[in-house]
Amino acid sequence: MESKTAAFITLGCKINQYETEAIRREVLELGYEEVRASTPADVYVVNTCSVTAQSGAKSRKYIQRAARTNPEARIVVVGCSSDQEKESFSKIPQVALLGGNEEKPMVASFLDGCWNPGEEIPAEMRDIFELNISGFGDRTRATVKVQDGCNNYCSFCIIPFLRGLSKSRDPDAVIDEIRRLVDNGYIEVVVSGVHLQDYGLELDPSLDLVDLLRRIGAVEGLRRVRLSSLGARAFTPQLIDLLEDPVFCRHWHIPLQAGSDKVLEVMRRGYTIRDFRLAVEELTERFDDPSITSDVIVGHPGETEDDFSETIERCREFGFSKIHVFPFSMREGTLAATLKREVVDPAEVRRRAGELGAVDRELNCEYRERFIGRELDVLVEGASRGRDDWLEGLAGRYLKVAFPAPSPGAARRFQGTLQRVKIDKISEGGLDGHWDEVPVDASGVAL
């Protein structure tokens, strides 16, 4: 009997990537064979994103593409956009299951005929953290979800309405999962959450993110711990002291969102530029050339040209190694959607996004140039795309590094391992270097 096939499509954040991987493993255990999303499949699982209006449109595009690729397929649509775009998604005949985030643990049961939409979700399956993983496809680092939801309700953000309030995963379950990943050959994990600094707020007995990270960093065989995203106020003296442990990557993603205190207050971000500056100053004083990346929204309702100029100045002051620039996207149901009289002209939003994008490229280039002539430990992902006989991977500071393979078969031998590379020059979007035969010390800093 010919096996059934399934394809998996993920849009959005690392949390979605984690949840898709968990769904994928459960579906494959039913006997499905995985195929590429660009080929005909019996089932397509689309894990959608709704962080911006463009994300919702992109989700719809992928669902429609799957329907065209195999008009006889069953399409399972889950995730944040399912609630926002329910009316339009439901008009696609091939959509067999249209669920939000709560339905993700039920996908395999639905495909196996054990559960149908509209039926009550069993109590033991309502917790999205019941989706456990022991691998992450063919990737060399694994995302580990420890927290979901958000209590903040920032003006522009729809996510708390779609994922609910903050929820923390049991710390023992987190450690067990990381140990399984290490046993399966993973040496780097990315600790992820929607609002990571809220970890542990509702747990009994109470603990916080520092407690959890201390336990994670002590897992035997784990070489690198990377944090997905943290707010400026999360960088307490206790956390910064812990981050000096060499297992923690010198890369921190700290969303700025705006460089003006006035706009930050309208956004309901809960911090000031002074708070952000203190965090950046402490990190740059305590660590050698840390990589500090950020998110910035341009064109939020009420943002003036002076506000935007402050944002440009602050980005230069903080010396971000990467800025993710987001033109403001109106999401109905958010506070920002009520500020329609203060909406910035779309052409002006595009202009500001372009100007900040140019600053990002300048700062990124300046940051990469610091590492010419230095040695970096690179987690090798595999053969370089576009260059024969080259390998590529990521340094601890989230820098893409490529180097010539030292011998035939090195891609296979080196994949998933740390290799020391001396940097020769910057390349388009990354760094080029050459392999150094010096073994990478397991106790060394995640360079």
Short characterization:
This protein is α/β, with parallel strands linked by helices and 447 residues long. It has four domains: 121 residues, Methylthiotransferase, N-terminal domain (Rossmann fold, 3-Layer(aba) Sandwich); 112 residues, Transcription Regulator spoIIAA (2-Layer Sandwich); 119 residues, Transcription Regulator spoIIAA, CATH 3.30.750; 62 residues, OB fold (Dihydrolipoamide Acetyltransferase, E2P), CATH 2.40.50.
Explain what the structure shows:
This protein is of the alpha/beta class. The chain has four domains: 5-125, 3-Layer(aba) Sandwich (Rossmann fold); 138-249, 2-Layer Sandwich (Transcription Regulator spoIIAA), CATH 3.30.750; 252-370, Transcription Regulator spoIIAA (2-Layer Sandwich); 375-436, OB fold (Dihydrolipoamide Acetyltransferase, E2P), CATH 2.40.50. The protein is built from 14 helices and 17 strands. It has helices at 14-29, 53-69, 80-84, 86-90, 107-111, 159-163, 171-183, 209-217, 237-243, 261-267, 273-286, 305-318, 346-369, 410-414; strands at 5-10, 33-34, 43-48, 74-79, 95-98, 142-148, 167-168, 188-193, 224-227, 251-253, 291-298, 322-327, 375-383, 390-395, 400-404, 418-427, 430-436. The strands form four sheets. Strands 2-1-3-4-5 form a five-stranded parallel beta sheet, with helices on both faces. Strands 13-14-15-17-16 form a five-stranded mixed barrel. A hairpin with a 6-residue loop joins strand 13 and strand 14. The model is unreliable at 442-446 (pLDDT under 50).
